[in-house]
């Protein structure tokens, strides 16, 4: 992995990873003698427990490398000393780089973060160690299962992608203890720890697609794209994301939850507002961390609700928050377009006109759907769903009278009718289509020729020509 860098005479490398033991074994290659150092054990032969020198002081360990030829010293947790900005260590590395270049040696730091030190920045080269791929995770699973005479599960290895080797091994072991085989469900539950430990996002329960009334155009779009994730369809381009714009209460958020159930994937809610921090650079750092966790997680639906509220102030960001929102926005857009992960981003917006134009550019999302007020056919579906959900008794013949009601307002009608009766409850509800008539009309005009319609259209009555009976000639 680092052989080419060593051949080129790089004196200092940082291997970015949270798997120090795996990293130590992977970097070993022919042509150099590899040693490992940490502040507890000192210097040992890399990949073994054999202690060479009991040097625990980092400066002395660096000076020890000065005396070696064609050697690599793998330093564990040296970044903690560098973060403390200890002058002796910084100076020792600066002085050592010249010697290491001439002696064919190198210092390799194993670190979960990039140590930011201007004094060493030009000497240091950062290499990211990728997480184990599906094949490596399957081999790990086979090793565990073979001793127990249990058949390995390739799907479980695919689900485990995004875990470290240690996390995958413990998830497999827990599954074997609980179920007697490698259960994808248990591995998914253990994988969810990635999200919980990050503290940047939260899990939500997916919704059954049967809870979504109407919106057949959107459902069909998602169902067709879901075939890209079936075996044998790897040649099909995967779905990257969908932007749902429309009137409040029309089922945009519910559709995001239902998408996760269609695919059988976990649902993560990314609250961009909660990522914003008060310190300079904190918001951008949190955004990067969140997207890195999502990338590592693998197959997941990412729900970003009311995205226009998070990014509407992008243009004035430099005057209000030092440019943090604009920087977050720029990074988020780049990630949307360049992401190589298997995640699908479902973003909702009540007022899409407040979003910057670059957000809507082709390539960010696969499609932009406009979710309008439900048609008569959709209102009939929604009434049936709400009657079943709340045990209410609203007649479907009331659907034409509910013209202009959103799904959320029909749900409120179902709940209120249990106390006040259908007629009284209906009289008390004033729909948004009346109170915000102009705003809704403007949204509907914007959506015309700018977005796909998510709704199920009413069946137009067939035109019939009225034929007058001509009396027979006498």
Kindly describe this structure:
- There is one protein chain.
- The protein has helices at residues 3-7, 20-27, 58-66, 78-83, 87-103, 134-146, 154-159, 165-179, 184-191, 193-198, 216-226, 252-263, 272-275, 282-297, 307-311, 317-320, 324-338, 376-390, 407-420, 422-428, 432-435, 437-447, and strands at residues 12-16, 33-38, 42-45, 51-53, 71-76, 106-111, 124-128, 202-204, 241-246, 267-269, 301-304, 344-349, 367-371, 452-453.
- Helix 6 crosses helix 8, helix 11 packs parallel to helix 12 and helix 19 (407-420) packs across helix 20.
- By secondary structure, the protein is α/β, with parallel strands linked by helices.
- The strands form 2 sheets. It has a 7-stranded mixed sheet with strand order 4-3-2-5-6-1-7, sandwiched between helices.
- It has 3 domains: 3-128, Rossmann fold (3-Layer(aba) Sandwich), CATH 3.40.50; 134-191; 199-458, P-loop containing nucleotide triphosphate hydrolases (Rossmann fold, 3-Layer(aba) Sandwich), CATH 3.40.50.300.
- The longest helix has 17 residues, at 87-103.
């Amino acid at each position: 992995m680092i052989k080419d860098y060593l051949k080129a005479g790089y004196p200092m490398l940082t291997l970015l990873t949270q798997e120090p033991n795996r990293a130590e074994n992977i970097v070993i290659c022919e042509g150099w003698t590899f040693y490992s150092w940490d502040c507890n054990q000192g210097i040992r032969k890399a990949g073994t427990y054999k202690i060479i020198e009991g040097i625990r002081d980092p400066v002395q360990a660096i000076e020890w490398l000065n005396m070696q030829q064609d050697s690599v010293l793998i330093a564990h947790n040296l970044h903690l000393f560098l973060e403390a900005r200890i002058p002796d260590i910084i100076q020792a590395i600066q002085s050592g780089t010249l010697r290491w270049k001439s002696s064919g040696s190198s210092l390799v730091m194993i670190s979960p973060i990039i140590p930011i030190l201007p004094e060493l920045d030009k000497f240091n080269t950062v290499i990211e160690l990728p997480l184990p791929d599906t094949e490596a995770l399957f081999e790990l699973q086979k090793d565990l299962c073979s001793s127990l005479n249990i058949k390995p599960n390739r799907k479980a290895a695919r689900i485990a992608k995004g875990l470290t080797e240690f996390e995958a091994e413990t998830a497999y072991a827990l599954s074997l203890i609980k179920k007697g085989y490698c259960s994808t469900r248990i591995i998914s539950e253990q994988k969810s720890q990635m999200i919980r430990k990050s503290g940047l996002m939260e899990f939500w329960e997916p919704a059954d697609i049967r809870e979504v009334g109407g919106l057949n155009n959107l459902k069909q779009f998602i169902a067709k794209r879901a075939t890209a994730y079936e075996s044998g369809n790897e040649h099909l381009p995967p779905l990257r994301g969908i932007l749902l714009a429309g009137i409040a209460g029309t089922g945009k958020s519910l559709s995001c939850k239902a998408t996760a159930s269609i695919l059988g994937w976990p649902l993560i809610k990314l609250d961009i507002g909660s990522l914003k921090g008060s310190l300079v650079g904190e918001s951008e750092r949190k955004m990067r961390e969140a997207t890195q966790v999502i990338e590592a997680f693998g197959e997941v639906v990412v729900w970003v609700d009311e995205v226009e509220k998070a990014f509407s102030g992008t243009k004035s960001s430099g005057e209000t928050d030092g440019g943090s929102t604009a920087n977050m926005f720029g990074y988020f857009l780049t990630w949307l377009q360049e992401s190589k992960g298997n995640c699908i981003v479902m973003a909702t917006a009540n007022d899409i006109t407040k979003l910057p134009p670059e957000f809507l550019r082709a390539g960010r999302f696969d499609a932009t759907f406009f979710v309008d007020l439900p048609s008569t056919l959709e209102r009939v579906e929604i009434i049936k769903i709400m009657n079943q959900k709340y045990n209410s008794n609203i007649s479907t013949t009331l659907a034409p009278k509910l013209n202009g009601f959103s799904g959320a307002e029909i749900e409120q009608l179902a709940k209120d009718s249990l106390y006040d009766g259908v007629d009284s409850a209906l009289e008390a509800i004033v729909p948004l289509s009346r109170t915000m008539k102009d705003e809704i009309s403007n949204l509907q005009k914007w959506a015309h020729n700018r977005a796909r319609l998510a709704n199920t259209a009413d069946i137009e009555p067939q035109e019939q020509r009225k034929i007058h009976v001509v009396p027979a000639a006498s």
